[in-house]
Write a structure and sequence with these properties.
It is built from 3 helices and 3 strands; from the N terminus they run ααββαβ. It is 40% helix and 14% strand. By secondary structure, the chain is an alpha+beta fold.
């Protein structure tokens, strides 16, 4: 059985919301280490248990929990932790 148009639209909306939540500094700091379901600009549900968060958001939205996107939130201080720091070029190799 395919999802209804409403469920499909909410899936896209929660996908957009998960991107917003994971990239917004204030949201990421407030919900770091948590699972969230969001729509752009609003957190609908959050917590430590993915399944509980999905069920809570599904109840709010009136859809099956399998049709929404649940996002884990990483603290902004961890966003670029694994990226190597660019080495400084010697002055002889810089323009100018």
């Amino acid at each position: 059985m395919s999802p209804s148009n409403q469920e499909s639209n909410l899936n896209w909306e929660t996908l957009d919301g998960s991107t917003w939540a994971s990239e917004d500094d204030a949201v990421a700091r407030a919900y770091a280490g948590k699972w969230v379901v969001a729509i752009p600009g609003k957190i609908l549900a959050s917590g430590d248990d993915l399944n509980v968060v999905a069920q809570e958001a599904a109840q709010i939205l009136g859809v099956d929990s399998k049709t929404i996107v649940v996002q884990s939130i990483v603290h902004p201080d961890e966003w670029f932790k694994d990226f190597p720091v660019c080495p400084q070029l010697p002055a002889s190799q810089t323009a100018g």
